[in-house]
Write a structure and sequence with these properties.
Layout: H1 2-27, E1 36-39, E2 46-48, E3 53-59, E4 66-73, E5 76-79, E6 81-94, E7 97-107, E8 115-123, E9 127-136, E10 145-151, E11 159-160, E12 163-164, H2 165-168, H3 170-182, E13 187-191, H4 201-211, E14 218-221, H5 233-238, H6 241-244, E15 250-255, E16 258-263, H7 273-284, E17 290-294, E18 304-307, H8 319-324, H9 326-338, E19 342-347, E20 356-359, E21 365-370, E22 385-392, E23 397-400, E24 414-415, E25 420-425, E26 431-437, E27 449-456, E28 465-468, E29 473-480, E30 484-491, E31 497-502, E32 511-513, E33 526-533, E34 539-548, E35 551-557, E36 559-560, E37 566-571, E38 577-587, E39 592-601, E40 607-616, E41 621-631, H10 647-669
Parallel strand pairs: 2-9, 10-13, 13-14, 16-17, 17-19, 18-20, 19-21, 39-41
Antiparallel strand pairs: 1-3, 3-7, 4-5, 4-8, 6-7, 8-9, 10-22, 11-12, 15-16, 20-21, 22-23, 22-24, 25-26, 26-31, 27-30, 28-31, 29-30, 32-33, 33-37, 34-35, 34-38, 36-37, 38-39, 40-41
Length: about 675
């Protein structure tokens, strides 16, 4: 009886902490607080056999009391044994800096199935957890090849093409999960510039939230943007990149008979010599592994085939290696010449495909593959995309391209320009939505796509329901992964639609506000910043209907920004007359909120009057606000506004009054 009570209390404790962890994970806004798991990571997992022992490195100021530890996946929840011994070590990051970490030892059960698992450690004070950080493989069967999905230059924290990169990148989650389940992708790699500014912690949290939804093992290295505004290695590791990604500047990862080695080319565009020496040390001890090297800055600046000694081909080498890191480049070529099990080097940085082949003196090949940017700007003629690469144990490397077109060294990536698949979630991840319009995307079939919905366990499982284009759904699977529920939905995305899994129905329309109405001028861009707040499932789209003299002259799609509540509309008035701009925000349940701006462009005076109305229809509820602007003189401005209530100011005043009254009462009692 006592044991049962202990188990019940433990389960409740896990549930409570799990709800918090689920919220922190799916929303990606919670700071990583100590203690936290350093390694294994969701971007450098542990590769283990059933029944094996392994170490977990934890950032902590003191030893930890472990209550329970588990691994979870779609295969189930499995308890792992904790070895009560623990101690601190110095994790070497580079020759000048080591990170102090606590080592915890665990052992896997012998009957655990193969697969990718989350790691959950329950302590007496908190729940530590790292998604997709444990790979179980019983090593049965032969693996002569490995398929890699190569992405680079994700640049979270920047905007490009009317979307913030974090929002735009969710389409790769859909694409990758579909490739994993339908095209046998084994591993996903990211070759740097994960965020646009290395000191942008919010973007690292967004990256964590988005990327950890991929249903495959993943690896990542730094780029020059990940070093931006980061002064030294200590801050890189303890505060920024190392805290949210991987705290190592050189690492290696073994996957069956294949090994990946990651090196850091830093802000300056080439590695330090100690990294090149560490690379050779790892390679020299792994003669039986087929090796793929990951780095951000490429060796070769253009696609092509190259032969000869380093000095013979120096003019073809990328500028940062050629002009400042030539000693490292020469040593790198010496290593490649010496160790024939190095078969591929994957890079990014140049935001375009530029695949090259280097021939050793004996004629054997090393493939240098550079992939187009995932989300950010690119040179003329290129596009956003990713690449699929097959590496075989015999050293052959092949870029797999969509059927219907031929591979060239400058166009081997999947073109994702027309792949408009986006994810939106509510504040607590009790509603998660995918919506899409893939018109024009013909790279791979999306007739059976894998969509993932990670939802908060604060709600009972039976409260969650599927809404939207349910007739597009082929199958749905549900899993309890310990700290959250996972819904896997297989659907046909060949026609525009949306799917939502939510614990409630959204009946409230969005609120649209214009804090400062702009003054229009003929021939000059009119920039309207619209703040859109939705208390329900989330926003599908925001657009502006432009009316001139009572007739709709154009419709403008609003630009999303890195602030999820801020949308930007840019319009240039060309003709005099009476204008009305109707800003409409549509949520995922097709509720519509509106804000209207009305103005006339004519001489000679200007007045502004605010009018607010609220209208309801039987189909949707529409909230409408209007600004009436009459302009006749560019030099005279008169504004007349109705009374507005500043609730924040009122709250502050009330708080001051309460404190004053409380103070008087205390003084009186004395």
């Amino acid at each position: 009886m006592r044991l049962n009570k202990i188990l019940v209390v433990t389960q409740i404790f896990i549930l409570v902490l799990g709800v918090y962890a689920s919220y922190a994970y799916t929303v990606g806004i919670a700071a990583i607080q100590e203690p936290y798991i350093v390694l294994p990571s969701y971007l450098l997992p542990a590769y283990l056999e059933p029944g094996s022992s392994f170490s977990v490195l934890v950032r902590s100021g003191s030893e930890i009391k472990v209550i329970e530890a588990l691994v979870s996946s779609t295969r189930g929840l499995f308890k792992i044994e904790f070895d009560s011994s623990q101690g601190f070590i110095d994790l070497r990051v580079d020759p000048s800096y080591s990170l102090r970490v606590l080592v915890l030892r665990f052992k896997l059960p012998h009957n655990i199935p193969n697969g990718l698992y989350n790691l959950i450690i329950v302590t007496d004070t908190r729940l530590m957890w790292m998604p997709n950080s444990i790979i179980i493989d019983d090593m049965s069967g032969l693996r002569d090849s490995i398929r890699i999905a190569h992405l680079t230059d994700t640049h979270f924290g920047a905007e490009q093409g009317g979307y913030p990169n974090s929002f735009k990148h969710t389409r790769y989650i859909t694409l990758l999960n579909t490739l994993v389940e339908s095209y046998n992708i084994d591993i996903v790699v990211y070759t740097g510039d994960l965020v646009d500014v290395g000191s942008d912690i919010l973007s690292y949290r967004d990256f964590f939230s988005v990327i950890s939804q991929v249903l495959a093992p993943q690896l990542a290295i730094t780029g020059n943007h990940d070093w931006a505004q980061v002064p030294d290695t200590r801050k890189l590791v303890k505060i920024y990149y190392g805290r949210y990604i991987v705290p190592l500047r050189v690492w290696n990862f073994t996957y069956r008979d294949f090994m990946f080695i990651g090196i850091d080319t830093r802000m300056v565009g080439y590695p330090e010599m100690w990294q090149i020496e560490e690379l050779e040390r790892i390679v020299s001890k792994s003669p039986d592994k087929t090796i793929i090297i990951l780095m951000h800055h490429p060796i070769f600046r253009e696609a092509g085939e190259y032969r000869g000694k380093p000095d013979d081909i120096r003019r073809f080498v990328y500028s940062s290696w050629r002009d400042r890191g030539w000693s490292q480049a020469v040593k790198f070529f010496e290593i490649i010449e010496k160790y024939h099990n190095i078969v591929a080097v994957l890079a990014g940085h140049i935001h375009r495909d530029a695949d090259a082949i280097y021939y050793r003196s004996d004629g054997s090949k090393v493939y240098f593959i550079t992939t187009t940017t995932a989300n950010h700007g690119y040179p003329s003629g290129y596009y956003w995309g990713m690449k699929i690469i097959e590496v075989r144990r015999d050293g052959s490397v092949k870029v797999l391209i969509p059927s219907g077109r031929q591979y060239t060294p400058t166009s081997g990536s999947i073109n994702t320009e027309a792949l408009r698949v986006f994810e939106v979630r509510d504040k607590y991840s009790t509603a998660v939505s995918w919506f899409w319009n893939i018109t024009g995307f013909n790279e791979i079939s999306l007739a059976n796509v894998t969509l993932v919905f990670y939802v908060n366990k604060s709600q009972q499982l039976n409260n969650y329901k599927l809404y939207g284009s349910t007739n597009y759904v082929h199958k749905m699977e549900v899993y309890d992964l310990g700290v959250y529920y996972l819904f896997k939905v297989y659907a046909n995305l060949t026609r525009p639609g949306s799917l939502t899994i939510a614990s409630y129905e959204d009946k409230v329309p969005p609120r649209v506000e214009i804090l400062t109405p702009p003054i229009p001028t003929i021939g000059k861009p009119l920039v309207i910043n619209a703040y859109v707040v939705d208390e329900g499932w989330g926003i599908r789209s925001v657009k502006a209907l432009i009316k001139l003299n009572g007739r709709i002259s154009s419709t403008i799609e609003a630009i999303r920004t890195t602030d999820p509540t801020l949308y930007r509309i840019v319009y240039t008035p060309r003709d005099y007359g009476n204008y009305e701009i109707i800003i409409q925000a549509v949520d995922l349940n097709n509720n519509i909120g509106e804000f209207k701006l009305s103005y006339s462009i004519m001489p000679p005076t200007e007045t502004i009057t605010k009018v607010e109305t609220i209208t309801k229809t039987n189909i949707t509820e529409t909230v409408t606000q209007e600004y009436l602007i009459t302009q006749t003189s560019p030099t005279t401005t008169t504004q007349e506004r109705g009374v507005t209530i500043n609730y924040t100011s009122i709250a502050v005043i009330l708080l001051i009054v309460i404190l004053v009254v409380a103070g008087l009462i205390i003084l009186r009692r004395r």
